[in-house]
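Example 9 (inverse folding). The structure is encoded as follows.
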């Protein structure tokens, strides 16, 4: 089976579209609350950061967005494991090192987006993932 047909029959394209939709919703949510979106989908060899933004207090925030179309596999944020958070911290530090100017304090947040065909998207924003 060719790769494209496999993707179509196994929902890879649908998952990608779901993820992009969730990131768009999260970015609009943050911007409406006065956050400045600095970058989206920043990539390096180690991975990708969904959103990099400055909150109204001036803190640089690396935001991981998790999106689901239902609760069949649990809440979107339940997929954030210790290993994933650790990897995100490493990605955040790589981004900071790539900047020419000092960026100041950095925080790691996550936004879970639940898309429901019958209702408006629901968001849950968790701040300071690195804090116990």
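The amino acid assigned to each position is listed next.
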């Amino acid at each position: 089976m060719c790769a494209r047909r496999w993707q179509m029959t196994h929902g890879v394209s649908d998952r990608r579209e779901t993820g992009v939709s969730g990131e768009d919703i999260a970015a609009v949510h943050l911007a409406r609350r006065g956050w400045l979106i600095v970058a989206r989908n920043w990539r390096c060899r180690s991975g990708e950061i969904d959103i990099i933004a400055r909150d109204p207090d001036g803190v640089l925030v690396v935001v991981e967005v998790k999106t689901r179309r239902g609760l069949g596999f649990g809440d979107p944020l339940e997929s954030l494991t210790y290993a994933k958070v650790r990897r995100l911290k490493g990605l955040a530090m790589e981004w900071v090192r790539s900047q020419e100017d000092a960026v100041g304090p950095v925080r790691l947040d996550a936004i879970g987006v639940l898309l429901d065909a019958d209702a408006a998207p629901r968001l849950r924003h968790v701040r300071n993932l690195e804090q116990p």
